[in-house]
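Retry 2 of 3 after timeout on previous attempt. Resubmitting structure tokens to design endpoint.
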């Protein structure tokens, strides 16, 4: 979303440099909305990663469980 919004706004920047009016276009607002949404999604991902690492790190746990282990095609007990 962030990249799509950036591309839209870059296109509109080129249009503005060429002398066209871009203030009333709905595409301008769509680009801004995509950029804001992309930043929010990235930030949410960073916060979730930080919370997960803090939770599992404080308890010395791993965020996964190995149910079976195989070596050379055979199950190891």
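Retry 2 succeeded. Sequence:
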């Amino acid at each position: 979303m962030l990249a799509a919004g950036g591309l839209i706004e870059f296109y509109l920047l080129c249009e503005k440099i060429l002398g066209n009016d871009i203030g009333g276009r709905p595409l301008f607002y769509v680009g801004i909305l995509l950029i804001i949404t992309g930043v929010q999604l990235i930030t949410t991902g960073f916060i979730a990663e930080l919370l997960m690492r803090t939770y599992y790190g404080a308890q010395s746990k791993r965020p996964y469980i190995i149910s079976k282990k195989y070596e050379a095609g055979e199950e190891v007990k």
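Attempt log closed. The two ends are 47 Å apart (CA to CA).
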